[in-house]
């Protein structure tokens, strides 16, 4: 008798269709191998759809050749295309990485017009051909507003299924805090990043726990405001400055964390930072894609309710949300929301 390769319930053996745009780019090169090694989709086989612009298709073919050469047992099929209607067909999990990265000295807002035009057509294609339970993560910057454009162009997809990545900011904060407190990152829970994936973001430790106990008393207020918050918020620029390119392996790793958690859940009692369309919680206008503390409820990222917000937090949240509203108004004026 033949043994199944992996012992999982029969219903979980259906292949998962996973689309990645920008597949031949820096982030794609770190991301793709971890999509087929079982850590995100468990024992399900993976049909990979690699999306690139025309000039990137040859390099994407090279990436596909290397994936084949890695002989992953769970890699079922690879499609290479520049057509979102092909790449997103019946997609269950979509990573929208393809965009133009920021150069030294540029702010994310500079990328609005350049990258905004990509996400309208991609939203329309998702709306038309993706699986109705598709889970979408926008990584390409400006990620929050690109996700807002996408959601506006995909009216038949539940907006909660369209997210943008602030997990990198969340994990950057955990890295800094673990070093400061001299504990492993696994000791930390309930970290929150609010707002935009930009220098205006608010990494907030008000609810942070260390080994289940409040951490606020162990952290110096001046260190938090003068070093921690700006260090995390400006880490992207710091990496560009030091490495000479925008972060790639860390971004891919955090995209994996985001999607893995979405498919598999997070530890009881904890939450993670997810940028999703606001439902009006914490005074963030509806439709704006903002980072919030989120937990999974019935497979959707729901915003953790009832957290006390003091004056300092209010000011910081309002500032980053004001930037998001400004970006939203700009793309509206550019006609990118329909
Ligand atoms: P890269 O230039 O190495 O790769 C981008 C790839 O996207 C290129 O191969 C390009 O041909 C492709 N591409 C461009 N438009 C496309 C489209 N419409 N469809 C399909 N493919 C397309 O860049 P990278 O370093 O991989 O970064 C990608 C994006 O991710 C950038 O916008 C960067 O700023 C952003 N980023 C976001 C975070 C985050 O935390 N949200 C972190 C790091 C980087
Ligand atoms: C990052 O945070 O590393 C990326 O968003 C790249 C950037 O432009 O900062």
Automatic annotation (TrEMBL):
Q: Matching Gene3D superfamilies, A to Z?
A: Lactate dehydrogenase/glycoside hydrolase, family 4, C-terminal, NAD(P)-binding Rossmann-like Domain
Q: Which UniProt keywords apply?
A: NAD, Oxidoreductase, Tricarboxylic acid cycle
Could you tell me which InterPro entries the record lists for this protein? L-lactate/malate_DH, Lactate/malate_DH_C, Lactate/malate_DH_N, Lactate_DH/Glyco_Ohase_4_C, Malate_DH_AS, Malate_DH_type2, NAD(P)-bd_dom_sf
- Locate the Lactate/malate dehydrogenase C-terminal domain: which residues? 166-333
> Any idea of its EC number?
1.1.1.37
Active site feature = 197 (proton acceptor)
Q: Which residues bind NAD(+)?
A: 22-28, 115, 122, 139-141
Q: Which reaction does it catalyse?
A: (S)-malate + NAD(+) = oxaloacetate + NADH + H(+)
The entry's substrate-binding residues are 102, 108, 141, 172
Q: Which residues form the Lactate/malate dehydrogenase N-terminal domain?
A: 17-157
Picking any one GO molecular function of the record gives:
L-malate dehydrogenase (NAD+) activity
Query: Which Pfam families does the UniProt entry name for this protein?
Result: Ldh_1_C (PF02866), Ldh_1_N (PF00056)
Leader sequence segment: none
Q: What class of enzyme is it?
A: oxidoreductase
CDD domains this protein is in? MDH_chloroplast-like
SUPFAM superfamilies (UniProt xref)? LDH C-terminal domain-like, NAD(P)-binding Rossmann-fold domains
Its GO biological process annotations read: malate metabolic process; tricarboxylic acid cycle
Protein family membership? Belongs to the LDH/MDH superfamily. MDH type 2 family.
- Tell me the function of this protein: Catalyzes the reversible oxidation of malate to oxaloacetate.
* HAMAP family xrefs: Malate_dehydrog_2
Query: What is the name attached to this protein's record?
Result: Malate dehydrogenase
Q: Which organism is it from?
A: Corynebacterium anserum
């Amino acid at each position: 008798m033949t043994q199944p390769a992996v012992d999982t319930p029969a219903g979980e053996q259906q292949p998962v269709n996973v689309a990645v745009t920008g597949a031949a780019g820096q982030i794609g090169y770190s991301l793709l191998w971890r999509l087929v090694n079982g850590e995100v989709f468990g024992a399900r086989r993976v049909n990979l759809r690699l999306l690139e612009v025309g000039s990137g298709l040859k390099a994407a073919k090279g990436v596909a050749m290397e994936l084949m050469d890695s002989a992953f047992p769970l890699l079922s099929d690879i499609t290479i295309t520049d057509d979102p209607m092909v790449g997103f067909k019946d997609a269950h999990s979509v990573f929208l990485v393809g965009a133009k990265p920021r150069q030294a000295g540029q702010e994310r807002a500079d990328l609005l017009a350049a990258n905004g035009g990509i996400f309208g057509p991609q939203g329309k294609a998702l709306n038309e051909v993706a699986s109705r339970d598709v889970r979408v993560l926008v990584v390409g910057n400006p990620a929050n507003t690109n996700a807002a454009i996408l959601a506006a162009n995909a009216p038949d997809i539940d907006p909660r299924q369209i997210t943008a990545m602030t997990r990198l900011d969340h994990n950057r904060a955990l890295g800094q805090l673990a070093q400061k407190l001299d504990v492993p990152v696994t000791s930390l829970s309930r970290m929150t990043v609010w707002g935009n994936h930009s220098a205006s973001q608010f990494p907030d430790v008000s609810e942070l726990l260390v080994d289940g106990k409040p951490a606020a008393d162990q952290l110096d207020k001046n260190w938090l405001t003068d070093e921690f918050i700006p260090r995390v918020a400006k880490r992207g620029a710091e990496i560009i400055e030091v490495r000479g390119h925008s972060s790639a392996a860390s971004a891919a790793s955090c995209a994996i964390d985001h999607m893995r958690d979405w498919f598999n859940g997070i530890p009881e009692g904890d939450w993670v930072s997810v940028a999703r369309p606001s439902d009006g919680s914490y005074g963030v206008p509806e439709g704006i894609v903002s980072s919030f503390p989120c937990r999974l409820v019935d497979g959707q990222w729901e915003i953790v309710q009832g957290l006390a917000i003091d004056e300092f937090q209010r000011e910081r949240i309002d500032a980053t949300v004001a930037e998001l509203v400004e970006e939203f108004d700009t793309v509206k004026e550019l006609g990118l929301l329909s």
